[in-house]
Task: structure prediction
Amino acid sequence: MGAVFVGKNNGIVVINNGTQTYLSPRKRISDEFCWGRGAICAAETAYCILYYCCGARKAEALHTLFKWDVISKLKKTGWVLKEEWVKKWAEIQLRLLNNKNKQKKLITLTIQKK
Result:
């Protein structure tokens, strides 16, 4: 069983194997977390959750989309996200992005052939 993220008014608690810790901002984008809106601090929230669940490469690639698709829609009063769900979301988004890139390449090749 994976980690569970709990958004509270004083931060994000990570519950993993019965242990509770606070998620720390990586200060890559902002030095604080927020959710329920599309602010810069929501991008930090998205990046840190994705980083925890999927690693730096996927977090870098997907954090803006995750911010708008998930983090900006969370209730300001509190929320819960499961690691398995975040990983599944990331897997689906990467597959969709990969398919879009393949389609762009096909279109480019078709145009170049004409």
In short: The chain has a mean pLDDT of 88. The chain has one domain: 4-113. The radius of gyration is 16 Å.
